[in-house]
Backbone:
């Protein structure tokens, strides 16, 4: 018990000076105890580190607790690692290796909720340098092997005219508007304000949101999948800038054919891109059209919400520092993992329920790709 509290228990009266002295002594005692607790332990005082891999974690945690930690069920981790074609990951700093399931768990745990590296050390029983190196290498593998193919670019093999027709029928059942197969919208992901005289202070500042961040523009289908995410762009950029820089109008004309993409009132009506009627005192039929499409278009907002609720690290802007870490890499890889999450667990997803449209199987979403198409884009094969 601190000295101050011990003295207060006695039935004595103290003047103001004596009480102040006792309080200062108590504060000093607490500081000494805290300093002792924070002091590094000697080698003979440290507890032996126990490394926990996939099998050990499955045995340690219940199914519910495991999914809280990693966002996926126990039995789905090997399936996900196999579908992602995860290799053995080697840490570039220490040379340590991680099996595919273990490396995937490190990435999922790191981004499921904000967590410090020292807490990752205590959780998995591996050194911070090893964990950081393996997580970074895993993110780079997922980006190079999958993100550039089915996130930054549309999976044109899966999204054939037949599949787009299914999407259009699902949207028609809700909106009574034909030939709309997807929705489009932009989102800004906040990060920590760049310090000093960094040029990004102005370029990355969103005057609309009043914070610094990266802008992304996404296409979303009624099966719950973000089929294309364009970015990152400077936080100051508008949706129209991303639309033109991403060459989306030409891409829609080439791949969507007779089907259209619907956006909010900030988008123009051009090519395969549609938007609502603008103005006040609209005729009744135009007003009904806007209301029906607005209720359906909220699906893409739900998609953004599902992304950041599944991987809450994306929202922890205080720990997202663009000059110190590859922030866009984290954003785009978590989009990929969110799509995989929708494929495995479609039941609670609001979009799948709204449009009664099932997402693809995980293996179909992460299917084989056409090397010739991606070679023409100049992407790694």
Residues:
């Amino acid at each position: 018990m601190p000295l101050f509290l011990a003295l207060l228990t006695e039935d004595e009266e103290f003047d103001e000076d004596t009480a102040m002295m006792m309080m200062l002594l108590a504060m000093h005692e607490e500081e000494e105890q805290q300093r002792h607790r924070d002091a590094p332990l000697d080698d003979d005082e440290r507890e032996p580190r126990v490394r926990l891999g996939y099998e050990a974690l499955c045995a340690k945690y219940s199914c519910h607790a495991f999914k809280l930690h990693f966002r996926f069920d126990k039995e789905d981790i090997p399936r996900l690692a196999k579908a992602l074609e995860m290799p053995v990951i080697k840490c570039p700093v220490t040379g340590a290796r991680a099996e595919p399931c273990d490396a995937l768990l490190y990435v999922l745990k790191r981004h499921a909720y904000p967590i410090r590296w020292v807490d990752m050390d205590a959780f998995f029983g591996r050194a911070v340098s090893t964990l950081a190196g393996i997580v970074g290498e895993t993110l780079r593998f997922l980006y190079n092997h999958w993100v550039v193919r089915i996130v930054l670019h549309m999976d044109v093999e899966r999204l054939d005219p037949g599949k787009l027709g299914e999407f259009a029928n699902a949207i028609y059942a809700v909106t009574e508007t034909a030939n709309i197969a997807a929705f489009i919208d932009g989102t800004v992901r906040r990060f920590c304000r760049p310090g000093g005289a960094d040029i990004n202070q102005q370029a990355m500042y969103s005057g609309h949101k009043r914070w610094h961040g990266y802008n992304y523009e996404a296409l979303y289908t009624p099966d719950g999948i973000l089929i294309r995410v364009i970015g990152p762009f400077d936080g100051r950029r508008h949706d129209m800038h991303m639309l033109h820089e991403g060459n989306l109008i030409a891409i829609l004309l080439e791949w969507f054919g007779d089907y259209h993409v619907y956006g909010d009132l900030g988008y123009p009506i051009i090519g395969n891109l549609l938007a609502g009627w603008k103005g006040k005192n609209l005729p009744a039929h135009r007003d009904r059209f806007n209301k029906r499409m607005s209720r359906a278009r909220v699906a893409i907002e739900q998609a953004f919400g599902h992304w950041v609720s599944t991987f809450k690290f994306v929202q922890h802007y205080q720990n997202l520092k663009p000059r110190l870490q590859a922030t866009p890499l984290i954003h785009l890889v978590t989009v990929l993992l969110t799509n995989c999450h929708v494929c495995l667990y479609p039941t609670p997803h609001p979009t799948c329920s709204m449009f009664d449209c099932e997402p693809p199987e995980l293996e179909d979403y992460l299917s084989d790709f056409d090397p010739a198409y991606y070679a023409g884009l100049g992407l790694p094969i």
